[in-house]
Specification:
209 residues, Rossmann fold, DNA polymerase, domain 1
């Protein structure tokens, strides 16, 4: 029996940053998927991983990411990457969360960095509105642990007082879903809002639109 629904934030309540990565690469004549390649190389200990655990400040990330890009033969300052992470909000996902919260415990596990702040009043409104609906939020930059480390999923389950088998977990990255699934959670890979909502309706038996 499902007792809790746990959500990622970026790429779930907002559009994926991958489109912004691709646009940046095209505009600068960089190889396709270069940024994703940098972020996936040594993914547990690279610049991005350390930044999300608050082991690097913005200056440190800027230098470390640039060094990783240079190792692949390209010039990409880390500071250029931060603005690319902000996608467009998906209000229908917030509405789904609002309805889910009437029947289930809710949590958010987000890999983020201390310097990430909403960039516009509209985006800030949606972020505050959405975050207020969760029973608990775990941010990698505050706890020093990031997905896909299994500890961060266990931390959420312990805080919500639920077993992993009683949870649904949504994320846009397959690598972050894998440990949740191994723990016994029902997982949903978010590829679009309509697709995710449809799968969540099936898993919960609720009407979410």
């Amino acid at each position: 029996m499902i007792e809790a629904v746990i959500w990622d934030f970026g790429g779930v309540f907002t559009s994926s940053p991958f489109d912004a990565f691709a646009r940046y690469e095209r505009e600068r004549g960089l190889p396709e998927n270069l940024i994703r390649k940098i972020n996936s190389t040594n993914h547990l200990e690279n610049a991005w991983a350390r930044f999300e655990r608050s082991e690097l400040d913005l200056d440190g990330f800027d230098a470390a990411f640039a060094a990783e890009a240079r190792a692949l033969g390209h010039n990409v300052p880390g500071r250029d990457i931060i603005p690319l992470l902000y996608g467009d909000f998906r209000p229908e996902m917030t509405e789904a969360l609002r309805r889910i919260a009437t029947r289930f415990k809710t949590g958010c596990i987000t890999n983020n960095v201390a310097s990430m702040q909403p960039e516009s009043p509209g985006r800030s409104f949606y972020a505050v509105e959405t975050m207020a609906l969760f029973d608990h939020v775990i941010e990698s930059s505050k706890v020093g642990i990031r997905k896909p480390d299994p500890r961060i999923y266990r931390m959420m389950c312990e805080t919500l007082g639920v077993a992993p088998e009683a949870c649904i977990y949504l994320d846009d990255l397959g690598g972050n879903l894998k440990p949740a699934r191994a723990m016994g959670m029902t997982t949903i890979k978010v590829e679009s809002a309509p697709q995710a909502i449809a799968e969540l309706e099936t898993a919960t038996g609720m009407k979410l639109e």
